[in-house]
Design a protein that fits this description.
Blueprint: H1 7-24, H2 29-52, H3 56-83, H4 89-114, H5 116-143, H6 165-188, H7 196-227
Helix pairs in contact: 1-2, 1-6, 2-5, 2-6, 3-4, 5-6, 5-7, 6-7
């Protein structure tokens, strides 16, 4: 029951987080990112199911092509056998060499065709993972300007902080939650699709979001220290 991520639960969590952000920061860039991430989560549910299903049109096309290649190899073998009945040694060597070259070509073609379905799925998964990576960077871009030190009024200077301490804490917290969601959405792409390249890309998204989230929590820690004297 708890051995796999449920895309529906991830979408529900994303919708709830989006609503919370819209309520507290209506019209903000972060609310638009939350909406975009929810759309990506919905699309991921469809793609995750697609990745787990066999692509029967591709498999049928591959099977037909492989059948044609095998027939061609058989015909080539038959022609070589007939030619050997009335050929010299040099012609025999040339025929064998040509046949070996054909076998190598057929082997490469079979290797390509057998992995075609996986490559089609990989291309789509990697494209979506790139979108998640971009969203993670955009989330980080929006929180960069949220500096806890802006909350401290310097002598002779006006405060540069557009947010209260509570608002900034919530903004940073929501940013961290969005990054965590992006990481979980990325994990869906390899949950039922066993592919090394896709797994590496999903791992890169997770590493990126964890690193960005750690920076945010460092800001939250600084925020707590900065605002502690102000609350006394």
């Amino acid at each position: 029951m708890f051995q796999a991520l449920d895309p529906r639960r991830i979408i529900e969590t994303s919708v709830i987080l989006q609503q919370r952000i819209v309520e507290r920061f209506p019209g903000s860039g972060l609310s638009h990112i939350a909406e975009e991430l929810t759309d990506v989560a919905r699309a991921t549910q469809t793609i995750e199911s697609w990745l787990a299903r066999p692509l029967y049109p591709v498999r049928i096309a591959v099977a037909i092509t492989l059948g044609v290649l095998l027939v061609m190899v058989g015909m080539t073998l038959l022609m070589v056998r007939i030619d050997l009945l009335d050929t010299s040694f040099s012609e025999f060597v040339q025929s064998v060499e040509a046949f070996i070259n054909d076998l190598i070509f057929v082997g490469l073609a079979i290797y390509f065709l057998v992995g075609l379905e996986r490559r089609i799925k990989r291309i789509r998964a990697l494209k979506q993972l790139h979108v998640l990576r971009s969203i993670a960077h955009i989330i980080d871009l929006h929180q960069l300007s949220k500096d806890p030190e802006q909350l401290v009024d310097l002598p002779g200077e006006d405060s540069l902080a557009p947010l209260t301490p509570l608002q900034m804490a919530r903004y940073l917290g929501y940013s961290s939650e969005l990054l965590a969601l992006a990481s979980k959405i990325a994990a869906l792409y390899v949950q039922r699709f066993d592919d090394a390249d896709t797994l590496a890309a999903a791992g890169d998204v997770e590493t990126l979001t964890v690193g960005l989230s750690q920076k945010i929590w460092q800001k939250i820690s600084i925020l707590n220290r900065v605002t502690a004297p102000l609350s006394r």
